[in-house]
Amino acid sequence: MKLTRPMLAVAGAAAALALTGCGADTKAATVPAAATGSLESLAARVKCEPDIQTDADELRQAICKTSDGKFVLATFATDRGQREWINDAKDYGGFYLVGRKWVAVGTDKVVKALQGTLGGSEEIGTDHSAHTS
Question: pTM of this prediction?
Fold first, then answer.
């Protein structure tokens, strides 16, 4: 069997996927399933005393502080309300840890630390560092 460039390219791509595929699952294995619950129960999981800032039917929001730093923790009545809030907030930049009907907002370091306990997925807001005033 004669090896051609396309066959070598396919073989090389398959080998690269096989080698990197093992590492791709490592992060997923270390992130727990996303936590659920009230604002107070989520705060208790990360050992913070929530300072409630907003207490409405649609949104509850608190400032929390752990040894990793300060962050905002918010819970939502609906998935749609959560997504609308995140989409609007991301225009201001920042790092967001998103779970089912909750979000934590803080520095990248804080969000990554919280992810180890609360699970969820990280989203990053718009980077405005290239803009000048």
Answer: 0.74
